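Title: Prediction job returns without error message
Component: structure pipeline
Severity: low
Priority: P3
Assignee: unassigned

Description:
Job completed but the reporter wants confirmation the result is attached to the right record. Sequence as submitted:
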Amino acid sequence: MAANAIDQTRRMLSLVTYLRERPGAHVQDVARAFGITEDELISDLDVLPMCGTSFRGGDLLDIDTDGDRIWWHNPDDVAEPLRLAADEATALLVAARAVATLPGLRESDRQALLRATAKLEAAAGEAAGASSRLSVTFESEGGVFADVDRAISERRRLWLRYYSPARDELTEREVDPIRLFAVGHTYMEAWCRLSEARRTFRLDRVAEIKLLDEPAAPPELELRDLSEGLVQPSADDPEVVVDVGPGGRWVAEYYPHDSAEELPDGGLRITLRTPAPASLRRLALRLGGDGRIASPGDLAESARRAAREALAAYDSDASHQQN
């Protein structure tokens, strides 16, 4: 979640000053001082050695721990006044301006960042002029992110109009948000009152969103481990069999599957599980002649019907262009 990342960044900046003044500090004491667990502190310490005064990788913080005490071996080496090259100043200014527009950033932090940016612009001289011609644009989901972030912090329910690609339709639903996370795109995990189940919503597919006055009350759920990716099929999910030719063998590399059996023509028979079998219609259309859904039968027929409709639409458009 972005708010947690911002909190961690703020904490690590304070941690650098704290550790400089307390060589050999005990892990337990530092964690207590910052109001975090020892595991969270160790996670911060794993990141700090990748930080320093140069974007090119030099002058990094040499901080380590033996699990009991924390040692900073080169505090004096990184205490010299910072001198930025032109490309470093440009990159820093562009990044600072982009972060200042990020949804979920506390207003006090935003103002502090803008003040620091103004000082950096004054010191950067010509580099500041070059950076003003560059910009970073975040996805249009920013407003949705801000509403979801607020709903989570205030424990309020949300109303959504959401596009479902599996059904190719917009649905309206009320959800109790649980968390925000990013895996390629930004997602909201929530308890959906329409399906009475946990669901994941991609923010760029939210067509409309409203913050409701009703309190959010999702059931107590164990958060999913996303280290293996967003799509993690369950043994209870419906089974789908897809036959692919040699040109479709990539499916076995990109889709989690139970088995992939070799076929005589050099293709594969791939057995996989998915909570939304209808979403595989798009895969069938993408494969074209390189593959087909073998089972279940209703999904196979649905894919064939979608292919016929797409071909008919293409033929109709081609005939109109000729006329």
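Comment from assignee: result matches the submitted record. The two ends are 54 Å apart (CA to CA).
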